[in-house]
Description:
Blueprint: H1 2-33, E1 66-71, E2 76-81, H2 89-96, H3 119-122, E3 135-143, H4 147-154, E4 161-165, H5 171-180, E5 184-191, H6 211-222, E6 230-235, H7 243-256, E7 259-262, H8 271-277, E8 282-284, E9 287-288, H9 295-312, E10 314-319, H10 323-334, E11 342-343, H11 346-353
Parallel strand pairs: 3-4, 3-10, 3-11, 4-5, 5-6, 6-7, 7-8, 9-10
Antiparallel strand pairs: 1-2
Amino acid sequence: MIYRITTLILLAFAILFFALHWANLVDSVSSEFTQPNLSNKHIKREAIASLALDNDKYNPIFENQYYKVEDERNTEIKQKKIEVGKLNNESKSEFNGIKNPLVLDKTKMIFEEPSLKDTWKRNSVQIGEATNSPKIAIVIDDAGVDKKRTAAVIQLQPPITIAFLTYASELKKQVRSAKKAGHEIIVHMAMEPESKNIDPGPNVLLIKSGSKEILDQLRWGLNRFNGYVGINNHMGSRFTSDPNGMGIVMRELKRRGLLFLDSRTSRNTVGASMALAYDVPYTQRDFFLDNDNSLGAINRQLGKIESFAKKNGYAVAIGHPKDATLKALSQWLKTLKERGFSQVPISQLVKVQNNIFPPN
């Protein structure tokens, strides 16, 4: 009799223990795979889980400013909130206390410099309160090399988002002139194209390069001038399709508080997915203005951009400092507001699309 009672009591405790731990297990699995609410009818975003972020499976993943390190050998997960990526003595001792700790490559950690946080917001062009009118951002790539045409771009009605090539000369002078005229600035970063017959310029980011070399080339470009809100890719159909290379880019953009504009030179680009995974503000091109460099073709593209903006609430168009492009834009921009559209810098669309503030 006593044996049966004891057995029943132990069984009851076992069921209770299992029920409690099962609930915790379900909660932990649910929180691990539940993504934040990123619903936006204008944006199609690829789920983070569908993308292999890096070849190095021990690369920490940025999740709400948490650094997670998993020791595969004992399945222990150590999670610690670390302010701006700096380990204090207490944190160091906790990490050192993990059994069989993994040696992590510091170049793959995501550090957010406190002094650089939200650099893109500080350097953005302020245009006042957002309105309900469809928003159009015009980006002019390849600026800086042809100084005469770059000067003509600067004369366009602001705000234009001007993407300066890193290897142009007199960059600081040209950028100052553009900012003084009311334009927004991004860095036009040379990245590897698919075709070997196309020269993207010096200090290009290449897939075959090691992580340190990619980071060095990226930082060289970012240090050429200042006052910009972020970067977009110059060419890059091959590089932007590579998760490892783009991961290095996103970690540096996150560290510097910058945004990313995906020029979408490849249908296989992982730019948006990587930016989302690394919590980098981003947007992407909807139209190229001047693939056909004739005035009539460019004007037809501008009409398509208007239709797209009316339907979706915004549009991002990329053009180049070409005579026909400059002529078409100079005429089109003058009456844009009268036709019910808002001319905005790229940072304004990033704010709206990333729900950094709700549109009015």
